Amino acid sequence: MAIIDIQQVKKNFKKQEVLKQVTIQVETGKIYALLGANGAGKSTLLKIITGLLSSDGGQVTIKNLSVQKNTKAVQRLFSYNAQQASVDEVLTGYENLLLIGKLRHEKRPKEVALSLLEQFGLLDSKDKPVSAYSGGMKRRLDLAMSLVGDAEILFLDEPTTGLDPSSRFELWEVIQKLKNKGKTIFLTTQYLEEADKLADTIGFLKNGEIIATGTPKEMKRLAGENSLMLTFAPTDIEKAKEVLRAFNPKQLSDVILSVELVEEIKTTLDILKELSLNQLEPQDFETIRPTLDDVFIALTKG
């Protein structure tokens, strides 16, 4: 059952239609990644979902409560992590978490602060001012602060933007651990690898519309089937094309043929068997699998 239900959401800024009847459903305990280029409408949609911005049509419900009609009640159900880290750099990491714990009326704010610092790998730096933290440490602290109160739903707006690859990988591990604990996570991202690594479901947002949705594996199929790339000696290429004619090979260069693999293992074995029977040996062969980059290019053409 969908814990987050977004139906036909629209938004206009002056005469510009920013969101066009966006519909998304997110199941409990899953990660949904909203993928799109800058200006696609990701942050606008996230602000509408979290009650920070009103829509011009449609409806959003979280745990069967209307965001529009029960904004305050709904906002107590989730935590929202914005693009810019909202940490106080003068305070230490521990003091930041302690302050949030007290503001949220935690019964044991000190214990909560120390537990989150340990969970996010910041315990050794708890007494350092946040100004001395790296970008990745600040982002982890910001995410830890959003978990004070133990919200079951997390909204993360481009959580790894601006981080170096090492810090990005560390934060991915944190997000995956949160999912393993049963959290429902809705994140926006520009990073195809991030969506592929983390998401159960991906939605592609382009010009305010969801143009495709599915699991990472399903999305990759939009760019075509896997293919087998075969390299032959220049003197063998014409014979290879003839021998493999039943497999509809495409010639990519003077020495390379490509064959689409509808049934990957069976088709590959059939091709290699046919070549062997005709005493043809490829110099090299490789299975090529579509990536989300291929899907993104295919979906955003024009």
TrEMBL record:
Record keywords: ATP-binding, Nucleotide-binding, Transport
Domain of life of the native organism: Bacteria
InterPro entries named in the record: AAA+_ATPase, ABC_transporter-like_ATP-bd, ABC_transporter-like_CS, ABC_transporter_ATP-binding, DrrA1/2-like_C, P-loop_NTPase
Keyword presence, Ligase: no
SUPFAM superfamilies given in the database record: P-loop containing nucleoside triphosphate hydrolases
Residues annotated as domain ABC transporter: 4-232
Record GO terms (molecular function): ATP binding; ATP hydrolysis activity
Record flagged with keyword Nucleotide-binding: yes
Family note: Belongs to the ABC transporter superfamily.
UniProt name for this protein: ATP-binding cassette domain-containing protein
Origin species: Listeria seeligeri
Taxonomic lineage of the native organism: Bacteria, Bacillati, Bacillota, Bacilli, Bacillales
